[in-house]
Specification:
By secondary structure, the chain is an alpha+beta fold. The protein has 2 domains: 86 residues; 91 residues, no CATH class. Helices cover 49% and strands 20% of the residues. The chain contains 8 helices and 9 strands. Strands 3-4-5-9-8 form a 5-stranded antiparallel sheet, sandwiched between helices. The protein has a two-stranded parallel ribbon with strand order 1-2. It has a two-stranded antiparallel ribbon with strand order 6-7. Strand 8 and strand 9 form a beta hairpin. Helix 2 packs antiparallel against helix 4 and helix 6 crosses helix 7. The protein is elongated.
Length: 224
């Protein structure tokens, strides 16, 4: 009999089981809930087929992966018509590689704000993960808000004889204003993201020390 003796071995088994189950979900277009019930009924034969029936603790690995896939479907992250979109699963894979844990150790805490909880051998940490596309979308969103606020403001210049009033949008070049705001927001976008993450009510007050890791196409913020 083989045993799972360390985290590296556990991660390899989680990865292997996840890839096998993904084949059923993505390639065969089978609902995660159906896959969950099928493998629960046929666990032993499944493990024998992939050569892992002699691994002590492998049932827990399969249970974790199956439960994770089913929960994603129940949370409406996956749809039967288009499983290959996989929504937050791509972020979870990035986090799994970064923290060297299996997907069964990653939970979605706030799907709207890309907040996750990573569990690693009894330790739990909260993280946020954004793709470069996410960051661009957030930047555009903030710039649009600032544009709306700025151009709608009225300027009043009082003098002894009269008071001159006009809206900013009547005197500025909107393209130049947008470019200026875009430049400023891009400069401080990391501060903005950190502020939003820290204000997220899903994260315990005790988890407020933030770190940032640039992974190329993804940016990870995490608490310790």
């Amino acid at each position: 009999m083989r045993k799972i003796t360390n985290r590296e071995e556990a991660n390899q088994y989680y990865k292997q089981i996840n890839e096998v189950i993904d084949e059923y979900i993505k390639d065969w277009k089978i609902r995660p809930t159906e896959v969950y019930h099928y493998f629960k009924r046929n666990m032993n034969s499944f493990l024998e087929e992939i050569g892992l029936s002699d691994v002590i603790g492998i049932h827990k690995v399969v249970e974790d992966v199956l439960t994770h896939k089913r929960n994603i479907e129940l949370d409406a992250v996956l749809t039967f018509e288009s499983f290959n979109s996989l929504d937050k699963l791509e972020y979870e894979k990035v986090l799994g590689d970064f923290f060297q844990v299996g997907l069964g150790h990653i939970d979605i805490v706030d799907s709207n704000n890309n907040i996750f909880r990573v569990k690693d051998f009894g330790e739990s940490k909260f993280v946020a993960c954004y793709s470069k596309s996410d960051i661009l979308d957030i930047t555009e969103e903030v710039v649009n808000e600032l544009m709306e606020i700025t151009v709608s403001r009225m300027v009043s210049i009082p003098t002894e004889e009269m008071s001159v009033k006009f809206f900013i949008e009547d005197i500025v070049d909107k393209d130049k204003l947008r470019n200026k705001l875009m430049s400023e927001v891009k400069t401080d976008i990391f501060k903005l993201l950190e502020y939003r993450i820290k204000k997220n009510e899903s994260i315990p007050l005790s988890s407020k020390i933030i770190k940032r890791e640039d992974l190329g196409n993804y940016l990870v913020f995490y608490f310790c």
